[in-house]
Amino acid sequence: xxxxxxxxxxxxxxxxxxxxxxxxxxxxxxxxxxxxxxxxxxxxxxxxxxxxxxxxxxxxxxxxxxxxxxxxxxxxxxxxxxxxxxxxxxxxxxxxxxxxxxxxxxxxxxxxxxxxxxxxxxxxxxxxxxxxxxxxxxxxxxxxxxxxxxxxxxxxxxxxxxxxxxxxxxxxxxxxxxxxxxxxxxxxxxxxxxxxxxxxxxxxxxxxxxxxxxxxxxxxxxxxxxxxxxxxxxxxxxxxxxxxxxxxxxxxxxxxxxxxxxxxxxxxxxxxxxxxxxxxxxxxxxxxxxxxxxxxxxxxxxxxxxxxxxxxxxxxxxxxxxxxxxx
Length: 327
Description:
This protein has 327 residues and is an alpha/beta fold.
């Protein structure tokens, strides 16, 4: 099976290294220091006290890799439009594109959402560039429940979590999603199929749409954020708005914000991915995590004053650092 990782960072590298151990023919699209490291040393995964080395072909130009059976897209949302413009040479008629990204994806309302089904989300796909270049028929949605980091380019460290949830955007139980899940289970992942992947996307978003941006503009870890009762109350208010939006789209969340806070507290002094991006001077994923929620609130008729405040503060901070376009 020919598998290409588009975005050989923490999550993409983690998945790719383990698939290579199952005999998959692995390749990666990369640039700069990551490309150089992969070409010289291959892909290294540090996991469970072991060092897993995976050989692969790494190129900057996707056309040099050719058509793949599976393309795993594991980039940050701000990079997705550029990926879409370049991904074409990897796609054949039966290629599966598995998205392993944070936040609301561009395909969120494809085959889902009742009256909103098929609606374009400008927050995550301005002008429809992504949808134009990656036909919906290729997409299998993925939700990752794991923490990984990049020690140095090409060297990935797995911290905790092993969950991968897969699902067709339209909810069908297809042979391809079953086969892909079976492959991932064989590779050692706790992979499952969801009958409604949007619900899993929304549940994960419900926790990180607040703590990610708040940590980014305060520099605080998640435990410090939740220990402040005023900030925790603000977080809960944003979550209640998102919960109401989900209910109107048919993806209710049974938990209360305090239930979710209790789960998050178990992570301890956790540095969110967005805080890590700010520290590294990388563009932040505000649109996929917050702007898209605001847009869905407008589409469903849910007022979002707390989400609006979170977005305004977050983008003001990020724009000042040159990590987000100025409003």
